[in-house]
Amino acid sequence: MRLLYLNHNYRYGGTYYRAMPMAKAFAQRGHEVTLFTVSREHKFHTVWSIEKGVHLCEFPNFGQENSGEGYGPLDNLFRIVYSLFHHFDIVHMFDHKPNATFSGYVKKLQKTTIVADWADWWGGPGGINDVPRRRLLAVGRFEEWWETKSKIWSDGVVVISRVLEERALSLGCKPGQVLYLPTGAPIDHIHPNPKEKARQKLGIPLERKIVGFIGMGQSDLEIVMNGLKALPDVWLMVIGSKNPRVFNLARSFGLADRLLQTDFVPDEQVNFYLSSADVACLPMSDNSANRGRLPNKILDYMAAALPIVCSPVGDAKTILEENECGLLAADHEFEKTIEHLLANSYLQEKLGKRALHVAHSLFNWTHLVDQLEEFYKKILHGQRLH
Fold first, then answer.
1. Cα distance between residue 383 and residue 376, in whole Å
2. Do the domain assignments include residue 126?
3. 246 vs 251: CA distance, rounded Å
4. Torsion, Cα of 193, 220, 120, 11 (10° steps)
5. 190: in domain
6. Mean pLDDT, to the nearest integer, of 52-79?
7. Same domain for 302 and 377?
8. pLDDT, tens digit, for every residue of 336-384?
């Protein structure tokens, strides 16, 4: 098959970490895969490269963040022009932003099969876009409408969570056209390391107690910070780009001197930071956005064999409950749950080993791509019948 993947984020951000592993897996199986993403460095230039057999194109980022990601005029124009003059069997669109869908629907007009990937709940109350003054009112209304229409009008829909699966079916998508497919764990580049070795490399004292948190999305940290303010010997390590809001939040909870913000960490070094943590945390407010997603964080933690303390929200709650690989804590319970886990090395090891097993079994990309490949074949066959 000739596959085109349309990712709306910058390279190394957001659903790029969902699209790229899929693309690599299909390339390794002999399919021809092209992935479009957005360059972090280039404002007006397009850069092509090949990564693990994937033809990767980073389009210019000029205007990328106008009214939210995906609105770069050059990016959108170049994608549409390229799509018009190249043949693909399937176009897989990673969510509904203009640069992830407009060129896909251009290909649909040319009778190409298109698949919509639904990895976040964007519109409506509690959705990702439900933030005052995040974007122009008209753009917000368009996105709320287009988020659902782009799924209904696709030939197939791939959803990251059971909540979004239910939502797709409630919109009228046929069960045979909807595939529940969580993101795989990054076991190719994240794996357990001895804590002593990791801390020695990073210059972190071995006796320090650390709760780890990873990711560009650094929201809901007030939940864990509120718990840590009563645990004066425990540090919070935030792995990802430094965010002044996070520092100011820590200062408001009296944690400024116990906050470690790493700044951007390359994939090859993530292991050391994760392995230097005693416990990993995943605080989440109970809203549509969090119920609809499967955070990459939880998969990173599992791959690193870390015990997890998580809010009882969405698929993350279900995964930890069904696989017994972490502890659930309501907002007011984070303090005692973290304290309990830090005091119990046997429980830490047990949960960590269980999490690693789940990462390598339930969330193994090889098994997940088997399902996606069968789904592609099914909808291609269905298109031919019509």
1. 11
2. yes
3. 9
4. -50
5. no
6. 93
7. no
8. 999 999 999 999 999 999 999 999 999 999 999 999 999 999 999 876 5
Residue 86 CA: distances (Å) to CA of 81, 83, 156:
9, 5, 21
Asked if 326 contacts 302 with a C-beta cutoff of 8 angstroms, the reply is no
d(CA 2, CA 188): 24
Is 322 part of any domain? Answer: yes
Which residues make Cβ contacts (< 8 Å) with residue 304, sequence separation at least 6?
190, 191, 192, 193, 271, 274, 275, 280, 356
Q: How far apart are CA 112 and CA 50, in angstroms?
A: 24
DSSP state of 43: S
Q: Are residues 159 and 142 in the same domain?
A: yes
One domain, residues 149 and 258: no
Q: Which residues does 54 contact at the CB level (< 8 Å), separation at least 6? A: 20, 23, 24, 27, 33, 34, 35
Q: Which domain holds residue 91?
A: 2-184+364-385
* Longest distance between any two alpha carbons in the chain, whole Å: 65
Cα 134 to the chain's mean position, in Å? 20
The single-letter code of the amino acid at 84 is L
Parallel, antiparallel or unpaired: strands 47-51 and 54-59: antiparallel
- Please name the residues in contact with 74: beta carbons below 8 A apart, sequence gap of 6 or more: 44, 59, 60, 62, 63
Residue 322 exposed, middle or buried by CB count within 10 Å (0-12, 13-18, 19+): exposed
Cα–Cα distance, 187 to 363 (Å, whole number) = 9
297 and 155 in a common domain: no
Helices and strands (H, E) in the chain, number of each type: 15, 14
- One domain for residues 35 and 161: yes
pLDDT score recorded for residue 385: 42
347 and 378 inside one domain = no
* pLDDT surpassing 70 at residue 134: no
Pairwise CA distance, residues 67 & 88, whole Å: 30
Do 303 and 345 belong together in one domain? yes
3-state secondary structure labels for all residues of 274-301: HHCCCEEEECCCCCHHHHHCCCHHHHHH
91 in any annotated domain: yes
Our count of domains for the chain comes to: 2
Amino acid letter, 231: L
Query: Once rounded to an integer, what is the mean pLDDT over residues 119-148?
Result: 82
CATH, residue 170: 3.40.50.2000
Q: Is the dihedral of CA 70, 242, 268, 45 positive or negative?
A: positive
